[in-house]
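Incident log, structure service

09:12 report received: a user says their structure output differs between two submissions of the same chain.
09:20 pulled the input from the user's history:
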Amino acid sequence: MTVIGADRVMRKLSQLPDRIKKNVDRAVKTSGDELVRTAKVLIPVGKDAHGDGHERDKIHATQNADGSVLVDFGPKSKVIEGDRGPRPFVNPALSVTRKRHKSRAKRAVNKAVKELFNG
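09:34 re-ran on a clean worker, output below:
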């Protein structure tokens, strides 16, 4: 049995992983930047770890070659030996941005599929 147009659909489906990766990488970069902005707002001012007064400037994100984003929250986010209390600005920043990150990634996948088949 032959399906009319199956070859065309298979060609489009073979292009799907590349489009999804491109769109999701962009969404992950945006989410990483948003996480950095949120952490910079939530970081407590005062009691500087190194005495230079620039704790907000030490929070930054780096996008890796595989598309993932590594966020460095600076020296104030580190848990020192024996003192395992909650990180006062890292965990709230992660929990606030988690839902938006998941939604942004889902929209990126949907957008890639729609672009492939509609455009």
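09:41 both user submissions now match this output. Likely a transient worker issue. Closing.
09:42 reviewer note: The chain has a mean pLDDT of 86. The chain has one domain: 25-79+86-118.
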